[in-house]
Amino acid sequence: MAQQYHDRKQREARMSMSREERARTPFIDYLKPIIADGDTGFGGATATVKLCKLFAERGADCVHIEDQLVAARLQFDVMGTETVLVARIDAVAATLIQSNIDTRDYQFILGVTNPNLKGKGLVALLADVMASGKTGPELQAIEDKWLAMAHLKTFSDCVVDAIKNLNVGEAEKRRRLNEWMNCAGYDKCLSNEQGREIAERLGLVNLFWDWDLPRTREGFYRFQGSVNAAIVRGWDFAPICDIIWMETSSPDLVECTEFAQGLKSVTLETMLAYNLSPSFNWDASGMNDQQMMDFIPRIAKLGYCWQFHYTCWFPRGCFNRGHFCQRLCKEGNDGLC
What we know:
This protein is α/β, with parallel strands linked by helices and 337 residues long. 46% of the residues lie in helices and 10% in strands. The chain has a six-stranded parallel sheet. α3 crosses α4, α7 runs antiparallel to α8 (170-183) and α10 packs parallel to α11 (253-264). The longest helix has 18 residues, at 314-331. It is elongated, with a radius of gyration of 26 Å. Keywords: Glyoxylate bypass, Glyoxysome, Lyase, Magnesium, Metal-binding, Peroxisome, Tricarboxylic acid cycle. One of its GO terms (biological process) is tricarboxylic acid cycle.
C-alpha cells in the first residue's frame, strides 16, 4: 500500500508539470518487488493456503517458507499467479525435530547408546526432579549431566562404532563397514526397522539404541543438523519450489559447495539462494579480505543465483539503505563491511 501511495502521488505531481519540468525531474520506480516471509506457514495446510492467498492478493512477488510447501504451491497454481516460491531449509543448525514419522529424517535423529540408561527416560527424570522443587540452573545441570551420560549418536554412527568393537579381524571389520555404508547412506532414507535388520545381518544382535529416551519435555526428538540433512530436504523441495535457500550461521564456502553439489547431483537445474546475513561475523570466518570480496562471485558459480542481504530494524535502516545498496552493487561483498 505504501508503494502504491507514493507511486500515485508521483503520477499526480508529474501530471501537473510541464513537459520540460517532467524531462528535468527524474522518475522514481516505487513499485519494488515485495518478498514476504511465510515462516513455517503459521498453522496447517489450510492456514498456509489462506496465508499465501493473502500474500498474492496484496502484491507479494516472492514468498519464502520453511514448511507447508505443497500447500503454498497449490494456492499459487490455483490462483494462476507467478509468485516465486522459495523453500527455506534450516536443517544445518537444527537440534530438535517434532516427530520421527518421516524416514527421510531417520539418519539424523539421535538416540541413547548407553545401556545403563535403559528405561530411564529424560522426561521422567526431569518430572521427578521438578516435583522435588528444583528449577532453573539446577534443572539444566541435571539435564546436561544426563545427556553427557547418554552418549547420543545417530543409529548409523552407533552401528559403525559397534562394528569397530567386534571381536573379528580387521579385514572382516572393513567388509562389514563397507556393506553398512553402502546400505545406510544418508541418501538411502532407511527406516529404523530396515537399519536394524541390516545391523543384525552384520552380527550386531540386540544393539542398544533408543531415540525416545532423550526426547525433550515438549516431545521433540534430538536431531543432528548437517548439510546432508539439508540436501535430503532439498531433493524433495526441488520439484515444488522455484528456489532453495539453505540458511547458515556463518559464511562458509565449504558448506555452500557441499550443498550445491549434493543437491544438483539429483536436481541439476535447481536455483539456489544465499542469505548474506547481517549477523555474519566475517572477521571470524577465516577468510582474508580478497577471499571475502570473492565470496559472492564464487558461490554464484555454484548456482546461488539469488544472493540477498535482509535489513533488520526497518525504520532505522531506511536512512542508509540507498547508500548501502549502491555499495553492495558496486563493490560486491566488500560493500557489506
